[in-house]
């Protein structure tokens, strides 16, 4: 038997004690800190996906269930309230729309949930099938119908937070940022004047956060950006992220609210522009926080802000604002 055989099992999983690099050492440190698993044989293997976090599949001696371990990426604490994310994830598990949460370390943000066997993460291609966003709306309906979370953080709080971060970090924004932010203020005043419809929101419809399996209900994961927020913003994030046509947006507004009219469509359209402002600023700030990202966040952020400006220059923009 070689030294390699003692630290790797027949499935290719790594055994605790055989870490070869910093990423694997961080996994082993996280696993050894979980009290109920101490003294047991633990195996781990990487799980692809996630822009910032390190994800791993965990096998624990003596259990039939495998687990999913998430280790937060460096700098992600700038944007994420770990206690709030844990609260939302626990509630989702209890409501049956997310996996069961089995461990959370408030100090490090390390989280362990059940590994959903047979499930896979959605891709952008999946969202071409209208059945997918309709399943998502069903999940949102369950999440939104529950009690409010302990923290309210609206899209305005998020945008204003990123603006402050951008100023503090000296982040370079597009030359037309002043125009975009001017329209943002107008939209903010109009929405606040109309009154916000606050519900518990997920706030992050990245395709990989939706898990599907044949014959099984869809599950929603990764509640790091969850908070109480405007109901329409949740749908606007989805329709904006997926580049849905106006015809599809109108269909989903009706599915989401049970009816459709110009006022509801206008609310989703305006919130869609704010979603691009929020995530555009987030990306520009994120790029400044670390030089190790294997992704051009600043380019992505500028593109998001450009798309927000495009919507704000739509001839219908003032009419959407008036209809709020």
TrEMBL record:
Q: Name a GO CC annotation attached to this entry.
A: cytoplasm
Instruction: Give GO BP annotations, semicolon-separated.
Output: phosphatidylethanolamine biosynthetic process
A molecular function GO annotation: ethanolamine kinase activity
Task: Supply the InterPro entries for this chain.
Answer: Kinase-like_dom_sf
Task: Answer whether the UniProt record assigns the keyword Kinase to this protein.
Answer: yes
Q: Which UniProt keywords apply?
A: Kinase, Transferase
Q: Which PANTHER family match?
A: CHOLINE/ETHANOALAMINE KINASE, ETHANOLAMINE KINASE
Q: What is this protein called?
A: Choline kinase
Organism per entry: Mycolicibacterium arabiense
């Amino acid at each position: 038997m070689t030294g390699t055989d003692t630290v790797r099992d027949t499935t290719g999983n790594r055994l605790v004690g055989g870490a070869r690099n910093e990423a694997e050492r961080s996994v082993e440190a996280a696993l050894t800190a979980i009290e109920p698993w101490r003294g047991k044989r633990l195996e781990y293997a990487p799980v692809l996906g996630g822009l910032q976090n390190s994800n791993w599949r965990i096998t624990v001696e003596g259990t039939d269930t495998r687990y999913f371990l998430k280790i937060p990426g460096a700098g992600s604490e700038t944007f994420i309230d770990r206690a709030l994310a844990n609260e939302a994830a626990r509630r989702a598990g209890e409501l049956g729309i997310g996996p069961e949460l089995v461990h959370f370390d408030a100090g490090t943000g390390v989280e362990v949930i059940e590994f959903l066997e047979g499930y896979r993460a959605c891709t952008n291609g999946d969202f071409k099938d209208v059945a997918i966003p309709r399943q998502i709306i069903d999940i949102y309906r369950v999440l939104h119908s529950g009690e409010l979370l302990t923290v309210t953080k609206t899209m305005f709080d998020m945008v204003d937070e990123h603006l402050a971060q951008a100023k503090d970090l000296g982040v370079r924004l597009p030359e037309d940022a002043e125009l975009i932010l001017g329209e943002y203020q107008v939209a903010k005043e109009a929405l606040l004047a109309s009154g916000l419809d606050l519900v518990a929101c997920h706030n992050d419809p990245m395709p990989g956060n939706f898990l599907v399996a044949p014959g099984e209900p869809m599950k929603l994961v990764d509640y790091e950006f969850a908070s109480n927020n405007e109901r329409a913003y949740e749908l606007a994030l989805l329709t904006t992220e997926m580049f849905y046509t106006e015809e599809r947006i109108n269909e989903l507004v009706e599915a989401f609210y049970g009816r459709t009219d110009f006022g509801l469509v206008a609310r989703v359209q305006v919130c869609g522009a704010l979603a691009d402002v929020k995530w555009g600023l987030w990306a520009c700030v994120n790029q400044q926080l670390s030089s190790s990202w294997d992704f051009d966040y600043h380019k992505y952020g500028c593109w998001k802000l450009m798309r927000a400006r495009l919507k704000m220059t739509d001839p219908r923009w003032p009419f959407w604002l008036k209809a709020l």
